[in-house]
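Weekly puzzle thread! Below is a chain. First person to post its structure in token form gets bragging rights.
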Amino acid sequence: MSALSTVMTPPPTIAEPESKESVNASASATESTPPAADASVDAVDSDNIDSVDTETLLDLLGDEYACRLLTALDEEPLSAADLVDRCEMSRPTVYRRLDRLTDAGLVAASRSLSASGHHQQEYHLAFETLQFSLSADGVDGELREAPPRC
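Winning reply:
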């Protein structure tokens, strides 16, 4: 399974309301007191990345440019210049998204030697599993670190 696969569990089944009045009453009650969403990533074991909130992860995954970078990095580690070419983005856009993805723990960088003999930053996915679950209480996210790179 790809590191970018998302596992989602369906919310509990909701019974059909009896009348339109009960629908309106339910809707107004829901609007006034929305369920509290868990804003932190669950820490299931020591391999999980702590302190990244679910809202940040969902925001990044909702960003077209960030998703294109993650998809490219799912195939192989790449330099920023390679990401600019492969994803057809401007250099500033690539670097801004890489900064956000790195801050969130989704991407990591390491130094590598380029074909021209120069050192360069090479970016790779920093997670093995990214999983979201939906419930009546909101959305929970879990991010599990990738094993160390050799």
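Puzzle host: Confirmed. Bonus trivia for everyone else. The mean pLDDT is 73.
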